[in-house]
Amino acid sequence: MPTLPWTTPNTPPAGAEALVFASRFETRTLWGAFKFFLRTPTVWRHVGRAPGAYGATLKAQPFKRTFWTLSAWESPEALKGFAASAPHGPVAAGLRGQMKDAQFLTWKAPTDDLPLDWKDVLRRFR
Fold first, then answer.
1. Which residue, 34, 2, 15, is CA-closest to 118?
2. Among 75, 76, 91, 96, which one has the highest count of C-beta atoms within 10 angstroms of its own C-beta?
3. Which residues pair with 21 in a beta bridge?
4. Across all residues in the chain, what is the average pLDDT?
């Protein structure tokens, strides 16, 4: 799967601040990567209609068993609401046993800087 393009569910206000959330998941097996891959469209549609979501993208390296997400949110509450709600919440819980490693980063960014650059995000994970 190539990198999914940045999608903007809700237009962010100019001159505001967004909460940025990035994640890196590595599955234990290729079978786990396949399961992650199969569930991606459901969660992708969910983020596309999530209240408070300013944007999101996904980078997948299924043969390396690694998936990266990047999203921008109106507030921590908007992100938490998305993460806990269906289908994201149940999908994430169902994949926990497939994960070898998971890393999460958050930071603030001006909404005028959206969409964010993957090079910067990957650098932050190093």
1. 2
2. 91
3. 71, 106
4. 94
- Which of 17, 19, 39 lies closest to 27 in space, CA to CA? 39
Q: How many helical (H) and strand (E) elements, i.e. helices and strands, does the chain have? A: 4, 5
Question: By the 8 A CB rule, do 12 and 115 touch?
Answer: no
Q: Nearest to residue 35, comparing CAs of 102, 88, 98, 100?
A: 98
**Contact by Cβ (8 Å): 109, 18:** yes
Bond into 62 cis (ω within 30):
no
Q: Can you list the positions of beta strands (E) in 13-124?
A: 17-27, 53-61, 66-73, 99-110
Q: What is the pLDDT of residues 12-69, one digit of tens each?
A: 999 999 999 999 999 999 999 999 989 989 999 999 999 999 999 999 999 999 999 9
